[in-house]
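User: Second chain of the day. Same drill as before.
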Amino acid sequence: MKKILYLDADLLNKSIFDSLVSGNFEEIDVTALSSTSSGEDALRNNSYDMIVSQIYPERLIDGLNLVKNLRLGRYGNSNRNIWAIAYTTINLVDTPQECIEAGFDTFVPMPDTEHRLLVEIQRLLNIKSLNEKDVNVSTKVSCLNLESSDVDKDLIRCLLKKEFGNKIFLFQASSLAAAEEILKNRKIDFAICDGPGAATFAQNLRDGIYGQNLTTMTTIVCTGYANIGAKEDYLRLGFSAYIPKPIIKKELIKTISDLIPLLSD
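Assistant: Same format as last time:
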């Protein structure tokens, strides 16, 4: 089991990182922390194979100085030479070189739409991804699940995992604001929606508010609103397909497979 220490003050980023890693590597344990001080304590008291860190001191993570001190052995020698990836929203001209000079092994900018981070983790730790022979990271499909119910989020996650395995990167959001943040920072191929904000999300997509390149993105509504005419109402709002709750697995999987050709190969 490989151990990664991930430092980021943003809760959404931590959730996304954990989802990406757990969905692609079986033998990795992630410890996600929110401040420089908690990271320093973790390094003093535990052994890791890699650290992935933001670098912005004004937002609680002073990754540059932390890695400098790490390389100097100030947190002990057990972690002194572990792999270090700067994974950050700060991407000025000199930022990559500044990170390398501080002791990072590589630099990956956010948003990482091409999933370069996964490639770097795999390369540095010399590990295989799940279903590596069958699925290439660059050909995976990204799904955004906007769902207010934790039970339904878990159900959709399990259904997609069982049917499509690791062909899908699943990003889950409980609110419109969280979904919009993910959409802003990640390449999303299709969405499954329900709950407050779902209709607004679909309308904003079609109106080009999230960018003209997303106006035709496949968007499926899964909802308990199943009155007569509900399907037509949702399709008029801009949804690509309508699935009533309780969700019937075969119906959901067939709809996704029909709308997302890559998943039916």
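The chain is about 40% helix and 20% strand.

User: Great, on to the next one.
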